[in-house]
Amino acid sequence: PEWASYNIGIFVCTRCAGIHRSMGAHISKVKHLKLDRWEDSQVNRIREVGNIAARLHYEERVPPCYRRPNPDAPQVLVEQWIRAKYEREEFCHPERQNHYVSGFMEGFLMKRGKEDSRYHPRKFVLCEAEDTLKYHVKENKEPKAVLRISELNVAFAPPKTCNQNSLQISFMKDGTTRHIYVYHEDPEVITNWYLAIRCAKLHRLQVAYPGATEAELLSQLTRDFPREGFLWKTGPRYTDAYKKRWFTLDGRKLMYHDDPMDAHPKGEIFLGHSSDGFAVKPGVPPGARDQGFSFTLETPDRTYLLSAQSDDDRSQWMNVIQKVIDKPLTPQDAT
Ligand SMILES: [Zn+2]
């Protein structure tokens, strides 16, 4: 690391140093290890505390549902983790976690309209005991929609939303996937909603699978998308023209949409295991039109001819799809 916080007594990386500085010097006093002047007392403070002891103190009671950010986590999650830790000291004082661990949360979020694609304030109510996340158009009227928490997925700030404080919530409705998009101006609030959904999911899974380890359950709470982007695909016949579609890989489901923010995918492709006739190959079959950077996705039902935007784009898509079809099916994958 190149930086240190001399009041907390820890070394930090460049990215975290910026976040520490933004909290203000009353929380964290940051200096560069080489470019700043250090007083003996400041050096001693770091010697006395150090990262290991600081972690034991500031992370003493992190709730299991909390998503500890790894280096490629969305920026807001990294920022809120650091603020929760040092500014709000949520993991030293568990009662400060009540917003998101209590199993109930309500408040307004801006929700993207399905028809007009503008954002409108909607009242959301999360209730773990009922396994529901509801939202209301008019506060005192019936909810517009009732989602099962155990059946929905929430992805944090997918880049296509161009909003760091956003969530994409996806769930099944009438046999097809439905996406809704919400955001809140306050990064702490949107993070708390995300954590509240994760906590409610974890608690329900713990009841449903008492024998499962916490690590197994934690891996099932929420999924960011391994890859999203435009690809061109043909229709069912090889001679059909290539059309531009927005593809989203979500677990074993490869969805394609007309527009990145569509409420419903145009199609959903289940990706099974390679031993059941699923394969991804570069190029197109003989006789089919090749639009460049093409690859073929074979499933038992249909062969999809796809065309990427570049060589690199194609190999990234092929890699993420290959990873999925190499993975054995689990009982939860059954469709
Ligand atoms: Zn860092």
TrEMBL record:
GO terms (molecular function) for this protein are: GTPase activator activity; phosphatidylinositol bisphosphate binding; phosphatidylinositol-3,4,5-trisphosphate binding; zinc ion binding
Primary location:
cytoplasm
InterPro entries, A to Z: Arf-GAP_dual-PH_domain (IPR052589), ARFGAP/RecO (IPR037278), ArfGAP_dom (IPR001164), ArfGAP_dom_sf (IPR038508), PH-like_dom_sf (IPR011993), PH1_ADAP (IPR037849), PH2_ADAP (IPR037851), PH_domain (IPR001849)
Q: Which residues form the PH domain?
A: 102-202, 224-326
Question: The Arf-GAP domain covers which part of the protein?
Answer: 1-99
The entry's cellular-component GO terms read: cytoplasm; plasma membrane
Which stretches are annotated as coiled coil?
A: none
Pfam families in alphabetical order = ArfGap, PH
Q: Where is the protein found, in the record's own terms? A: Cytoplasm
Keyword annotations: Cytoplasm, GTPase activation, Metal-binding, Repeat, Zinc, Zinc-finger
Q: Which PROSITE patterns match?
A: ARFGAP, PH_DOMAIN
Its recorded name reads Arf-GAP domain-containing protein
* Organism, scientific name: Heterotrigona itama
